[in-house]
């Protein structure tokens, strides 16, 4: 395990806040052990299910060679992969926004664009991937209560909602709602582009098609000029 990565990403921040770091670490290690065992039990359960899937595929296509060395361990790998790509289900979005900063007098739009994401369609469990563009407008009328957040948190909130069985429409709306509820800005706008495996690999088989969704609130909904500014800024390319 790359402890350095885990430490720098999450554990160091929590340790820095703890009044008793040693006690806190003991408690976290107990939680880690319990959670690791839960996930391993889930992996075993899913692995048995994937074995049944492969057996069903063999029934559908008798020519499938179940002794193919490339299939050895595949149910276990499928189970581990599903736990990884659905890890957003175990993420607390409030924790993502636990640290904010004063907006001071900044009252213009803040945008993080071209955020890569990977998600899983809840209809067919085919992957869909693309880019998210997230923007918000700090509400400076609230004085000291007007807040901004570190840019990495905007990327993390996209991952939080993307890494779960999902619809792009719902993901787009939920990202917007999370930013709205946690930062209470004057406005929020989210645009998501997605290429869907269920469209490119089956049925219509349109590999080049891209789905675009948007969700907006506050001044972005009321002010056409602000929406145009957002769309023009995310359209800019290096």
Account of the protein in words:
It is a single chain. The chain has 238 residues and is of the alpha+beta class. Helix content is 50%, strand content 20%. The chain contains nine helices and seven strands; from the N terminus they run ααααββββαβαβαβαα. The chain has helices at 3-17, 21-60, 74-85, 93-96, 151-162, 168-183, 197-200, 219-222, 224-235, and strands at residues 101-102, 110-121, 127-137, 147-148, 165-166, 187-196, 211-218. The longest helix is centred in the first third of the chain and has 40 residues, at 21-60.
Q: What is the helix content?
A: 40-55%
CATH homologous superfamily annotation of the largest domain: GTP cyclohydrolase I, C-terminal domain/NADPH-dependent 7-cyano-7-deazaguanine reductase, N-terminal domain
| Largest sheet data | 5 strands, mixed
| Count of DSSP strands | 7
Series of secondary-structure elements, N-terminal to C-terminal: HHHHEEEEHEHEHEHH
Number of helices: 9
Radius of gyration: 22 Å
Q: What is the CATH topology descriptor of the largest domain?
A: GTP Cyclohydrolase I, domain 2
Task: Kindly give the count of domains.
Answer: 2
What is the approximate shape? Answer: flat
Strand content: 15-25%
Distance between the termini: 37 Å
- In the CATH hierarchy, what is the architecture of the largest domain at level 2? 2-Layer Sandwich
Based on secondary structure, the structural category is alpha+beta
Task: Output the CATH class name of the largest domain.
Answer: Alpha Beta
- Uncertain runs are none
């Amino acid at each position: 395990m790359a402890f350095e990565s885990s430490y720098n990403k999450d554990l160091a921040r929590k340790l820095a806040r703890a009044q008793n770091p040693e006690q806190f670490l003991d408690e976290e290690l107990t939680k880690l052990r319990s959670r690791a065992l839960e996930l391993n039990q889930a992996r075993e359960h899913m692995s048995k299910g994937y074995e049944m899937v492969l057996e069903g595929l063999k029934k559908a296509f008798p020519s499938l060679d179940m002794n193919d060395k490339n299939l050895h361990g595949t149910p276990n790998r499928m189970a581990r992969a599903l736990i990884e790509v659905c890890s957003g289900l175990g993420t607390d979005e409030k924790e993502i926004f636990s640290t904010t900063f004063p907006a001071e007098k900044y009252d213009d739009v803040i945008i993080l664009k071209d955020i890569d994401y990977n998600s899983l369609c809840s209809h067919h469990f085919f992957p869909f991937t693309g880019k998210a563009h997230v923007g918000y407008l700090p509400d400076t009328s609230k004085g000291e209560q007007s807040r901004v957040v570190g840019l990495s948190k905007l990327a993390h909130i996209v991952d939080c909602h993307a890494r779960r069985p999902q619809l792009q429409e719902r993901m787009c709306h939920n990202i917007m709602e999370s930013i709205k509820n946690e930062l209470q800005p004057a406005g929020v706008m989210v645009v998501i582009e997605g290429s869907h495996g269920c469209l490119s690999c089956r049925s219509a088989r349109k590999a080049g098609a891209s789905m675009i969704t948007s969700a907006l609130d506050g001044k972005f909904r009321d002010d056409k000029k602000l929406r145009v500014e957002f769309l023009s800024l995310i359209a800019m390319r290096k």
